[in-house]
Here is the input.
Amino acid sequence: MGGRFEFFHTARPARGKGQSPPGRISSKAGNDRLRDLEVQVRDELQQQQITLQRAFQQLKLAGRFADLARKSLNQEQRRLEEGLSDTFRMISFQDEMIAALIGQVNAETRYQSALARMAFLRGDIFQRHDIALTENSQEINFENI
Here is the structure.
């Protein structure tokens, strides 16, 4: 289970023709780092986009629940006016309507929070990598990520 790690320190061989000076990154290593960075940024953005899409779906569902609760409350109100229901049932439907509206507000909050996190992530990526957008820059499209 446990492996043994040994490190032998040897003197660095003298630089020959065509070798990069110490401290300078080779073109291949630079390309590898750039590719790794692109993958990391793409992964971060994709993960946040998934979170944003889930929050949007929850917002749509919460809106449907609120609509259904409103319709149910209206139907129960008509039944109460016709004498087919009682105030206890009416209060119960009102409570369900209130719960649905609270759920809708919470879903809206989660969605707006996900939008803000996405904007923050983009800004953080731009700042970390010294990316400056000009006036003529094209808009970033997250559908192609």
In short: The radius of gyration is 29 Å. The longest helix spans residues 27-81.
